Amino acid sequence: MENLVNQLSWVIPVIVIAFMMLIQMFKILREYERAVVFRLGKYMSTKGPGLIFLIPFIDKIQRVDLRVLTINVDKQEVITKDNVTVNVDAITFFRVVDAERAVIQVEKYIHATSMLAQTTLRSIVGQVELDELLAEREKVNKQIQEIIDRHTDPWGIKVVSVEVRDVVLPENMKRAMARQAETERDRRAKVINAEGEFQAAERLVDAAHMIEKAPAALQLRFLQTMNEVADESSTFVFMPIPMDFLEAFKAIKDSGVPIIKTDDE
């Protein structure tokens, strides 16, 4: 019994040490992971995915995720080019394309990319006017993406997309924009009304030219109007007076011929 206890006293530590050695020797990496291997502090290689072999207690690894990562850029108070204070936030999508450079060239590449996205967002928004920021957001997103991608390329990082998520305006600016939109709608309504009157006047001119060429059309129009009035009210009788009849009285007045008056007058 004592011999068995003595044997177990040294067998159990050996098993524990062997198990720890196996854990240090073999690592399993997923399909989207890479391991940057350092041997005694010096970069050796980038391994993965699958099962990889390491020298216990000599090789150290740092795992790198190759999937698309997202960074939420917190709200930034920015003054636009036309001196309007706005609060903007954005989302940055990026992924690691070179695990070696992402680990060696920069410390904490996710944090560094986040800080760069914040400063770039403030810089670009400060260079555009408010109308451009609201109406041409895709253009602003493209500019921010290109700048961040250019600066993170030496780090082995590819910026997939940058999206400005929200633009918060001051209350006084919202009211001013509402008044501007209302005034613009009123202007459009007046322009449409004037355009309609202009087109109606053009049609009247065309109709006058047609009647001038065919005087009988005017008489037909008189008869049509009489028919419409008779349908609406039977208590009134509409009798059109030819325009030539009125012109005759006007000609008499202009000629100075005295009008004969009766004794009663």
TrEMBL record:
<dbReference type="GO" id="GO:0005886">
    <property type="term" value="C:plasma membrane"/>
</dbReference>
<keyword id="KW-1133">Transmembrane helix</keyword>
<keyword id="KW-0812">Transmembrane</keyword>
<dbReference type="InterPro" id="IPR001972">
    <property type="entry name" value="Stomatin_HflK_fam"/>
</dbReference>
<protein>
    <submittedName>
        <fullName>Slipin family protein</fullName>
    </submittedName>
</protein>
<feature type="domain" description="Band 7">
    <location>
        <begin position="24"/>
        <end position="181"/>
    </location>
</feature>
<dbReference type="Pfam" id="PF01145">
    <property type="entry name" value="Band_7"/>
</dbReference>
<dbReference type="GO" id="GO:0098552">
    <property type="term" value="C:side of membrane"/>
</dbReference>
<keyword id="KW-0472">Membrane</keyword>
<dbReference type="InterPro" id="IPR036013">
    <property type="entry name" value="Band_7/SPFH_dom_sf"/>
</dbReference>
<feature type="transmembrane region" description="Helical">
    <location>
        <begin position="12"/>
        <end position="29"/>
    </location>
</feature>
<dbReference type="InterPro" id="IPR001107">
    <property type="entry name" value="Band_7"/>
</dbReference>
<dbReference type="InterPro" id="IPR043202">
    <property type="entry name" value="Band-7_stomatin-like"/>
</dbReference>
<comment type="similarity">
    <text>Belongs to the band 7/mec-2 family.</text>
</comment>
